[in-house]
Amino acid sequence: MADVDKGTKPHDGRVARRQRNIEAVLDVVLAMFAEDAMFPSMEQVAKRSGLSLRSLYRYFSDPGELREAAIARNDEVARSLTKLHAIGEGPLKRRISDFVTMRISLHSGMAAVFRATVANATRHPGVEEARAHNRTMMREQFELQFAPELSGMSAERQKTAVAAADLLTQLESIEFLRTFRGFSETEARKVLVDSLEALLGDMERDGSPP
User: Fold this and answer.
1) Half-sphere exposure of 199 (CA within 13 A, CB side)
2) Which of 50, 161, 186, 197 fits 201 for a cystine, CB–CB 3.0-4.6 Å?
3) What is the pLDDT of residue 1?
4) Contact status, residue 118 vs residue 134, Cβ threshold 8 Å
5) What integer pLDDT is reported at residue 11 of this predicted model?
6) Is a pLDDT exceeding 60 seen at residue 103?
7) Roughly what angle, to the nearest 10 degrees, separates helices 2-34 and 63-73?
8) Per residue in 164-196, pLDDT tens?
9) Same domain, 17 and 111
10) Which residues form the domain of 26?
């Protein structure tokens, strides 16, 4: 057993060092995204990370693979920002407030990577696929949070309500409000809260399907 341990420790050390190097490189790419460098080259990343270009190419075959890996690395951050307490439970106003607060926070925490994702999606199928998956997950989260209201609607109205809310609360819409319209987080939050209350609130008042 002692011989086995001696043989595996150097290997384990190399694996751990490789993983540390990869994580450090991906963090460099994320930092460059935050500086609006949407398409960092292998040379730029190698220079900034202190890793040799040769070593970087051992980890990633081309710039596209490197950018895609950096975008994927941020998934853990996104998952932590999309959590909702007691999803689908409680008064409608509170659920709307919680939902909008979460989406605004998600955009704030992911804005740089979101912009990099949009910029790289047309160039890299893997990025576009992940983007489409995230959109679907976000729509499904809305459906769970507001299932009590949606279940009381006719099929046609439910379809329209989900489509409208999906359009309102995807990151693209929040990006539009924050970046192109110049709204503050507070102003953007009010737009979303008021819109969702108008969209869903009449079901709570009427207490019956239309």
Assistant:
1) 23
2) 197
3) 44
4) no
5) 64
6) yes
7) 90
8) 999 999 999 999 999 999 999 999 999 999 999
9) no
10) 2-62
